[in-house]
């Protein structure tokens, strides 16, 4: 039996420990119990409470006498009698069980939904009847008033099988492509089905009409959750007449009040695994939700974690034994786990001895300290030269290191480091010297920046320590706080005492420090008077105190006025100095160099440009039309066409004028040449 504690809640795992094979003789069993501590401490609450390979579903009958579990391989069902603490019967089936339900108070009426679309009805003697549904089923619920079985699965329809008439009735047509889970409220018999699209559809069995739809996929997405795909509904459970819990395939549990479409609380398992089971624990207002990795118990009003359990193997189903603190789980392991949590409730009647056992364990707690073993890492083994022992019986792997015998560790350490005792002795001497140094008067180490401010903070803290009450929390100190560390290291944060702000605030700061000193003097005088004259009254009259406060206020106001006058005088002096400097300086003409390719124009052009930029686009277009650089015309389609002429810069104009002159010169040369030829032709040869 293992004991774990989380949030001060004790959890007893009754199925922990080694199980003995059946073919062992009593003599060998007694010998193993003497040798092996685990075998001796194990508790076999129910004999052979396991499956050959894997257990998939587990349920308890309504009378609490029988525990039924389905598993593989081969597909089978086992019934355990709690009054006899042993196996009642075992039945093998043709295919694996998807889910099952116990219709009667005992095991006399059971319905199995199998993975090959078959539905089997079993009675006390065995299989009573077998039928088939049109699509592969995933879950079903039994409606007691009408004796109807509602089957949901890989179809948009909900199939209804009436057990009184022995025939199928008209199915319910949902808006979903597939339905994963379903449940019927035990009080008002409202039927709810969870779809693959993340919605819950509620139907009234009396009128066979849909009465409401909840979009759980949208409500499960919050700011903190990270979801890869669309969440589908994987678990559904009613509690009372108004509450309903919904589990999604992305690991969220939503608690609803049927009168509202918004969830009361959303709990995330933080693993991203589908929720397998949801149970309600009404005495403590808890919800027990489980995915394949963890079982969480949390308060349904606040969402605060009560406790949690993480078994070694993946979880397939969880069942809470009614009116007790026992929890049963079906796992991906032959052994089915049994947990007992005394806080949830007492032990069942058939194992009431568990209460006495847990009380004795709480009275005599056992220490879990490994006194005979030393934990070493791989680096420690390399330093000791014992790396070659990895994999041998002398080292036992545990987490990121190994356990080894403490005697072997001491021997090897003495051989590797024979001067270890001397080093230990020197370390002890050094610790003693440091302890004596701590008793001396320690000087205050002030920072390099803002020394006065640091000294002031230290003095204020020392003054507050004797007056502070014991129940009051220690306020954070600015000197030790990392957020204000830069203020005493960076010289950019140095307080400028010559600034105007500091000079105006300085009288107030100085007065506050003076008041503090006066109060200290008054307290010292009062203590001296108490020692000398015990009969005389303490303190001063109220008139004296009021006169002192008024004098302090007057003095502070006068000092502030003086500082303001000094600041005004300094400003006047600075203005006069600037005026003299301006008179002495002679203004010289400044020359500006014009960039190449640009022409100097008057300063009026820049003024015109600024005025143009202030105008609206319509006004600018009108000006451009007047100047001829813009033309607006209507097209045949009905739209407008605008053409612009770019303004030429001065350099472009110069180039165009030079090209024109060049063309004119060439024309003149050609004309003169043709004129000479014509004259020679007229004169004839010599």
UniProtKB/TrEMBL annotation:
Which part of the chain is the Nucleolar protein 10-like N-terminal domain?
A: 1-364
Q: Which InterPro entries match?
A: Beta-prop_NOL10_N (IPR056551), NOL10/Enp2 (IPR040382), NOL10_2nd (IPR056550), NUC153 (IPR012580), WD40/YVTN_repeat-like_dom_sf (IPR015943), WD40_repeat_dom_sf (IPR036322), WD40_rpt (IPR001680)
Give an example GO biological process: maturation of SSU-rRNA from tricistronic rRNA transcript (SSU-rRNA, 5.8S rRNA, LSU-rRNA)
Here the segments flagged for biased composition (Acidic residues) are 527-537
Q: Which domain of life is it from?
A: Eukaryota
This protein's record includes keyword Coiled coil: yes
Residues forming the NUC153 domain are: 481-507
Gene Ontology cellular component? 90S preribosome; small-subunit processome
Task: Give every Nucleolar protein 10-like second domain span.
Answer: 369-417
Where in or outside the cell it occurs: the entry states:
Nucleus, Nucleolus
Residue spans with biased composition (Basic and acidic residues)?
Answer: 570-583
Which residue ranges have biased composition labelled Basic residues?
663-686
Question: What are the entry keywords?
Answer: Coiled coil, Nucleus, Repeat, WD repeat
Region described as Disordered = 525-557, 570-590, 642-686
Matching SUPFAM superfamilies, A to Z? WD40 repeat-like
Q: Does the keyword Coiled coil apply?
A: yes
Family membership: Belongs to the WD repeat NOL10/ENP2 family.
Q: What is this protein called?
A: Nucleolar protein 10
Gene transcribed to yield this protein: NOL10
């Amino acid at each position: 039996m293992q004991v774990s504690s989380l949030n001060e809640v004790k959890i007893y795992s009754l199925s922990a420990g080694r199980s003995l094979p059946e073919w062992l003789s009593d003599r060998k069993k007694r010998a193993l119990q003497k040798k092996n501590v685990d075998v001796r401490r194990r508790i076999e609450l129910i004999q052979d409470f396991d499956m050959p390979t894997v257990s998939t579903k587990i349920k308890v009958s309504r009378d609490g006498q029988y525990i039924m579990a389905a598993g593989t391989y081969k597909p089978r069902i086992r019934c355990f009698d709690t009054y006899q603490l042993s196996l009642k019967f075992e039945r093998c089936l043709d295919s694996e069980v998807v889910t099952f339900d116990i219709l009667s108070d005992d095991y006399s009426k059971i319905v199995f939904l199998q993975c090959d679309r078959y539905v089997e009805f079993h009675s006390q003697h065995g299989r009573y009847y077998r039928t088939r549904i049109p699509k592969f089923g995933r879950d079903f619920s039994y409606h007691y008033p009408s004796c109807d079985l509602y089957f949901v699965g890989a179809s948009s329809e909900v199939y209804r099988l009436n057990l009184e008439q022995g025939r199928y009735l008209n199915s319910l047509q949902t808006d979903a492509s597939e339905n994963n889970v379903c449940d019927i409220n035990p009080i008002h018999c409202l039927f709810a089905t969870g779809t693959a699209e993340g919605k819950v559809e509620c139907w009234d069995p009396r009128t066979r009409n849909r009465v409401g739809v909840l979009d759980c996929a949208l409500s499960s997405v919050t700011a903190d959750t990270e979801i890869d795909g669309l969440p589908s509904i994987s678990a559904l459970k009613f509690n009372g007449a108004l509450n309903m819990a919904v589990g999604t395939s992305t690991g969220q549990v939503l608690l609803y009040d049927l009168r509202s479409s918004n969830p009361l609380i959303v709990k995330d398992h933080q693993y991203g695994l589908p929720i397998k089971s949801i149970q309600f624990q009404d005495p403590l207002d808890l919800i027990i939700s489980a995915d394949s990795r963890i079982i969480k118990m949390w308060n349904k009003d606040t969402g605060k974690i009560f406790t949690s359990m993480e078994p070694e193997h993946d979880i397939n189903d969880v069942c809470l034994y009614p009116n007790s603190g026992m929890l049963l789980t079906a796992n991906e392991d032959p052994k089915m786990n049994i947990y007992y949590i005394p806080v949830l409730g007492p032990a069942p009647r058939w194992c009431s001895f568990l209460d006495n056992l847990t009380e004795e364990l709480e009275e005599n707690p056992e220490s879990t300290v490994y006194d005979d073993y030393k934990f070493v890492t791989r680096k420690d083994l390399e330093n000791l030269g014992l790396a070659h022992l990895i994999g041998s019986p002398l080292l036992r792997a545990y987490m990121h290191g190994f356990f080894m015998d403490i005697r072997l560790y001491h021997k090897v350490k003495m051989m590797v480091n024979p001067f270890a005792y001397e080093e230990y002795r020197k370390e002890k001497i050094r610790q003693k010297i440091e302890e004596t140094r701590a008793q001396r008067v320690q000087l205050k180490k002030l920072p390099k920046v803002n020394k006065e401010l640091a000294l002031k903070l230290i003095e204020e803290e020392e003054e507050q320590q004797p007056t502070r009450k014991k129940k009051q929390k220690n306020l954070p100190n600015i000197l030790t706080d990392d957020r204000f560390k830069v203020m005493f290291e960076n010289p950019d944060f140095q307080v400028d005492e010559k600034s105007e702000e500091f000079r105006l605030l300085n009288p107030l700061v100085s007065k506050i420090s003076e008041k503090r000193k006066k109060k200290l003097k008054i307290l010292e005088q009062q203590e001296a008077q108490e020692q000398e004259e015990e009969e005389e009254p303490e303190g001063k009259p109220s008139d004296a105190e009021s006169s002192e406060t008024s004098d302090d206020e007057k003095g502070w106001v006068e000092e502030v006025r003086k500082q303001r006058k000094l600041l005004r005088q300094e400003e006047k002096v600075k203005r006069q100095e600037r005026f003299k400097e301006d008179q002495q300086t002679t203004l010289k003409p400044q020359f500006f160099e014009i960039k190449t390719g640009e022409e100097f124009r008057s300063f009026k052009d820049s003024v015109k440009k600024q005025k143009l930029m202030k105008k609206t686009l319509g006004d600018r277009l009108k000006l451009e039309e007047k100047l001829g650089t813009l033309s607006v015309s209507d097209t045949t389609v009905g739209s407008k066409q605008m053409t612009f002429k770019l303004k030429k810069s001065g350099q472009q104009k110069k180039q165009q004028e030079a090209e024109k002159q060049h063309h004119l010169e060439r024309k003149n040369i050609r004309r003169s040449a043709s004129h000479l030829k014509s004259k020679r032709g007229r004169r004839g040869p010599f």
